[in-house]
Amino acid sequence: MKDLLHPYWDLDVLGRYGKIASFLDPFLKGKDIATKIIGPNFTLLKRGTVLPFIHLEDLKIIDEAYLQLRAKHHLQDVKKQLNEKQILVRQYFFPRKLVNFFYACNNEYGKDIERIFIDIDRQNNPADDARKVALELVKTIKADTSFSLKYKTIILRTWSSFHVYLMLNKPIDHAFYDTYLSYGKKKEKSFINKRASEISKKIHPANGGANLIVLWAHARIKNSLILDTSNTPPGKLARCPFSLHIKDAKTIDGICVPVTEDELTDPKLISKIQKLTPETIWENINKYAKLLK
């Protein structure tokens, strides 16, 4: 197998992202893509608020000829051989640099919300604490008969923590988020605050669980696990499935992968995911892609 991250000796992650693009439908179809490029002494965020938009379809056209041009030539030397989209993709994905793969969760602009995004920020808590909270969050929402929206749940292990998505059957207006999902003064009875309170009770030692503090917030709070919905509105970014998780300019310390609710019950889940590599995920890409549909 050709090295997915070093296809022509030098590092180039675009080849891998191009390979997985077709497996990200329908999760990313029509969504505005963004990237964070990591260099030895810089970090660059590329997104559609500054550059022209790119979408999943633009990554599907990546082929061997394009990758070889990237590997062997500077952009200025081959510009005439590329179309506008190919040049633009190069601006989002620099050659020979590690790149985090993001997208605008409910697009860069607009009012509609198609998915509710809940980030479990674990701070200095062990990763397994986030697993326990993610499991209880999914179970608690499912059991809430007063929650009238129809949805499908998708769970991502982002490497540092977990993301829980409620993929809505029908889009809702931004006003729903402001009323029921955001946090702030006089919103103690909001959907997400109620979930935090319920989960804290369920996993309390008095009920046979761990002594974990679960809060609703956006700010990071030491020794607490935070349920954060603030990246739900249009204009906010989230990590894409199968994105590399990058520690620094030379180090990939994980990969974002979808998991099932049943897998969240496994105390060994974190250690199992830590063993995954770009190659093993690619070998099992069909299995993982099914969890995004």
Give me a quick take on this structure.
With 293 residues, the chain is of the alpha+beta class. It is built from 12 helices and 12 strands.
Verbal overview:
The chain is 32% helix and 24% strand. It has 293 residues and is an alpha+beta fold. The strands form three sheets. A six-stranded mixed sheet has the order 7-8-4-6-5-12. It has a four-stranded antiparallel sheet with strand order 2-1-3-9, with no helix packed on it. A hairpin with a 2-residue loop joins strand 10 and strand 11. The mean pLDDT is 89.
CATH structural fold name of the largest domain: Alpha-Beta Plaits
Q: How many alpha or pi helices? A: 12
**What order do the strands of the largest sheet run in, or round the barrel if closed?**
7-8-4-6-5-12
Please tell me what the overall shape is.
globular
Estimated radius of gyration? 20 Å
Helix content bin: 25-40%
Tell me how many strands there are: 12
Mean pLDDT: 89
Largest sheet: 6 strands, mixed
Report the sheet-strand fraction: 15-25%
CATH class type of the largest domain: Alpha Beta
The stretches of 5 or more residues where confidence is low (pLDDT under 50) are none
H/E element sequence:
HEEHHHHEEHEEHHEEEEEEHHHH
Structural class: alpha+beta
CATH arch. level architecture of the largest domain: 2-Layer Sandwich
Domain module count: 2
